[in-house]
Specification:
Strand content: 15-25%
Number of domains: 3
Largest sheet: 7 strands, mixed
Number of strands: 19
Shape: globular
Number of helices: 17
Length: 501
């Protein structure tokens, strides 16, 4: 297992022994919310704590029991959620004894029951701004104040991954704590349990319910069931539009923006998988004005966990069948006969849905450069790419915009010729930032909103802000809700209406 663990340090002095926190990161560590903060490592901890990464998730004790445990230790400890993989954290003593006994040597229980599950919050400084990666303990359910009032009470169910839901009334939206990936019955029950808990806590009865357009999201199916059961209207919203609305709402932006929404995947209006979108948006509607040239995800869901499949599709697009003769890490990760089978699947479009995702382009780069061929957890390849970025590198690759599509073929052709991984990664990220600048100049709207999981990449966001702000654009990023799917419930909530400005 390569997924990074959070590490609890006794005090700030001990953090500084192992890591290099900035002043802003120190302030986050010491804040009353006590989040996990992603900071650069100074020296290696245990190899399995955050393998292959330059950062560690560090936090300080936030409960009396933490202080008692650490008092007698002169080293930091791994502190992680008590749960089985892909399941919600355990909250009942009996459940803990049943589920955790197989991997825990000791279980400390208490006669004071836990009423609500609540994961640790995670913060990261992105583009010079403290940004939530996971908004939960310490931050939820503090409301987000809107620049207008909602005429109807709204329940927004969020996405399927990194789920949070939200309720909105008046000029406030209350986001739930982190629920997790709603991909199994156990998590779906926790999702539903928390919605009813919120409704009881706030004496709230929704007048409209909003969900993602993806027909296979469990949260969307639940929203449709709840809408019929309660007899209230259901509104569906496109995934990336919700991302942009969430950024607009938390920043109090009232006017039309150019939204740049980049992530791993989201259901598009045309039935393909979007993820590299430029949208002109306000609270009533949006227009998709530019996007990355779609490519095939060979094997569908398999490609999400295997960057080598995404890279192979990119290479087939550039070179056709001749790509099978390339002597690069991507091809070496396959058996020869496997590549031939996958070429036929790509050629005929068998289980190969179209995607415009920038997140998947990061995966392709990771594979081609030999950084990562398969993923142990979501975003692993992109995180490793981020660690290789050189802030002194200002050069970028050439790119072509044909009609309303950004053609990535020239970019990858140049990456294949690059000898140095760090240089290739840096120029790739710089190219993405320059694409944003060119499109912003073409569209001509001064207000730019950045959202989506890819916008958790500090070098990318920093470079976009630097280039655009130098040309007079106002760039808005997330500071109150995550740029990933943990923040889209806010965007769903504010779309519920023709809001009263």
């Amino acid at each position: 297992m390569e997924k990074p663990f959070a590490v609890m340090f006794r005090d700030l002095k001990q953090v500084e022994e192992y890591a290099n926190p900035s002043e802003l990161e120190k302030a986050l560590l010491l804040s009353p919310e006590r989040p996990i903060v992603l900071i650069e490592k100074k020296k290696e901890l245990a190899p399995s704590v955050s393998p292959g990464l330059k950062r560690v998730g560090a936090f300080l004790p936030y409960s009396p029991i933490h202080h008692i445990i650490l008092r007698g230790l002169d080293f930091p400890v791994v502190a992680t959620s008590g749960n089985l993989s892909d399941e919600p954290i355990v909250k009942d003593n009996q459940e803990a004894l049943e589920k955790l006994v197989n991997f825990a040597d000791f279980i400390l229980i208490h006669n004071r029951d836990i009423k609500r599950r609540c994961d640790d919050s995670v913060m990261k400084v992105i583009g010079g701004v403290p940004t939530p990666i996971r908004r939960s303990r310490g931050y939820s359910p503090l409301p987000i104040e809107l620049p207008f009032s909602l005429p109807r009470k709204v329940l927004a169910v969020g996405g399927m991954l990194k789920n949070t839901f939200a309720i909105g009334f008046g000029n406030k939206v209350f986001l739930s704590q982190h629920i997790g990936d709603v991909e199994n019955l156990t998590t779906l029950k926790v999702f539903e349990e928390n919605i009813y808990d919120f409704m009881k806590l706030y004496e709230f009865k929704p007048e409209v319910i909003v969900c993602d357009k993806h027909p296979r999201y469990e949260t969307t199916r639940w929203a449709k069931w709840f809408s019929e059961k309660e007899g209230i209207p259901l509104i569906e919203i496109q995934h990336h539009y919700a991302h942009i609305l969430s950024c607009m709402a938390e920043n109090g932006v009232k006017d039309k923006v150019l939204g740049i929404a980049w992530d791993g995947t989201g259901y598009g209006d045309d039935g393909t998988l979007w993820g590299g979108e430029f949208l002109i948006a306000d609270y009533r509607n949006y227009e998709r004005v530019f996007n990355f040239k779609p490519f095939k995800l060979i094997g569908g869901e398999k490609a999400v966990k295997e960057p080598k499949r995404v890279a192979l599709s990119i290479l087939f697009e550039i070179f056709g069948k001749e790509a099978t003769d390339l002597e690069i890490p991507t091809l070496r990760a396959f058996e020869k006969n496997e590549v031939e089978v996958l070429y036929k699947a790509w050629e005929k479009g068998i289980n190969s849905p179209l995607s415009s995702s920038v997140g998947r382009l990061f995966d392709a780069v990771a594979s081609i450069l030999g950084i990562r061929q398969t993923l142990s957890y979501e975003g692993q390849g992109a995180m490793m790419i981020e660690d290789l970025y050189d802030y002194t590198e200002k050069d970028h690759y050439g790119f072509t915009i044909r009609g309303n599509q950004i053609d990535w073929r020239e970019i990858f052709y140049e990456i294949l010729k690059e000898k140095d991984k760090g240089k290739a990664v840096s120029k790739f990220i710089n190219t993405l930032a320059n694409i944003c600048l060119e499109i912003a100049k073409d569209v001509g709207i001064q207000r730019i909103c950045l959202s989506g999981g890819v916008m958790q990449n500090n070098p990318l966001v920093s470079r976009i802000k630097e280039l655009l702000e130098k040309k007079g654009f106002k760039v808005y990023t997330h500071q109150k809700v995550p740029p990933n799917d943990g923040g889209i419930a806010l965007g769903q909530a504010v779309y519920s209406v023709d809001a009263e400005k």
